[in-house]
UniProtKB/TrEMBL annotation:
Name listed for the protein in its UniProt record: NADH dehydrogenase 1 alpha subcomplex assembly factor 3
Biological process, per Gene Ontology: mitochondrial respiratory chain complex I assembly
Domain of life of the source: Eukaryota
Organism: Mycena metata
GO cellular component: mitochondrial inner membrane
Amino acid sequence: MSFRLLPRLRPRSILQNGRIATNTRLARPIHTSLPVRSGPTSLTNILASETPLAVQVASVSEQGIYLEDGLHLPAACIFIDGKVFLWDVPESVTQWGREHLTLFEVVVPRPEILILGTGVELAHPPPSFRSYLTDLGIQVDVMSTRNACSTYNLLAEEGRRVAAALAPLSPRRWPKSHLR
C-alpha cells in the first residue's frame, strides 16, 4: 500500500457571464462556520448565570457591616437572592418573633438555609422563631454575627441558596425614616 500526498485545494477561477469568479466554497477554511443567510437572531449566553451575584460581606465592626461594594449597614439586615433588606427587629434576640420573618413567605425560590447572626455572642431566638422557618422549609443556623458573615460568604461563594439575617455587633435599630 502506498500513500501519496494530495495537492491542496486552491480557489478555482470560473468563467461566468464573461467575468472571472472565484469559487469561495473551496477556499474557505474548514474551521469557520457557514455564513448566516437570514436576518439577525437573538443569541443565548449559555455561560451566563441565572442567579444574581450574592452579597459579599467585607468586614464587621462595632459601627456595622461593610459590604464588598462599599455599602455600610449600621443596623440589622437580611441578605437574600443578591439583595439587601433593612430588618426592623427588636434589639434583644429573645423578642424576635414570626412577624419579623414575613419576608421569607414571599421569596421564590426560598433559601435552603438561613444563617442567623445574633450580635457579638451567640444568643438563641425563641423556639417559635426557629419552628416557623422550619415550617417554611428553611434550615436555620444560629451563630454570632462575625461567624454568620463568614459562613454566609462561604456558602454564597459555593452557589448555595443561602440567606443571612444579621443583627449588628452594637445593638441599634434603623431610624423609621429608612424603613418607609
